């Protein structure tokens, strides 16, 4: 994910078209380091002090199981900085508190991007440490940085990051499985795989853009395609009989629970579990 984010970042106005700020990386794999430095013309730093010196923001893009090793390297370097940079995490399931505690730094931002970020069509949800003191310029930097990869939404509470993980974070996988299912069925019917994929992908893209443009409720849009006793009505009946919406809902809740587990939080939530209080969802706030 980190490597894939470099290209849109370098083409973004805040980097490529701004005052030419420097992008630095630290990659321990010689193979990846060689590929990235040759492809993008940026330097790989093996010395953590040189990497951090003078930076405005550090983006942590390691796998969740590797964050402890990173903390041991980064913490002493951050402690020696007169002006501590912000630390922006894209590590799934790792809470802000863990970063703040292990790095002894309060300027922590946690985000959840998704794979379409690689083509600047992503959806990133992010939240800042509530006890951290951030300047307006720092908030703007975070916002502009994440906007390089598509749309971004800042939420008022970190709890929405775990929720967003199950919606926008893992959501592309749900869509890809739907695509796979429809394409395979079209091939079974007799279409070539190439044509089947074109039909399915354009249908999903067009339907999504249409929903965005009309701003209509999904039920209204669905009903507009469904004629009485028609072909779509027959398809809808089978989807309902197969508990389509319930299966999707269960998958999203399972993803949410796993995100909570990874952050060592109580995951006994959702249907059939200890229900979340209704007030849990009443204080949602965001800034575009």
From TrEMBL:
The keyword Oxidoreductase applies. Transmembrane segments: none annotated. Residues 1-93 form the Pyrroline-5-carboxylate reductase catalytic N-terminal domain. SUPFAM superfamilies: 6-phosphogluconate dehydrogenase C-terminal domain-like, NAD(P)-binding Rossmann-fold domains. It comes from the Eukaryota. Residues 158-262 form the Pyrroline-5-carboxylate reductase dimerisation domain. Coiled coil: none annotated. One of its GO terms (molecular function) is pyrroline-5-carboxylate reductase activity. InterPro entries: 6-PGluconate_DH-like_C_sf, NAD(P)-bd_dom_sf, P5C_Rdtase_cat_N, P5CR_dimer, Pyrroline-COOH_reductase. One of its GO terms (biological process) is L-proline biosynthetic process. NADP(+) binds at residues 61-64. Residues 264-288 are annotated as: Disordered. Keywords: NADP, Oxidoreductase. NCBIfam families: proC (TIGR00112). Belongs to the pyrroline-5-carboxylate reductase family. This is Pyrroline-5-carboxylate reductase.
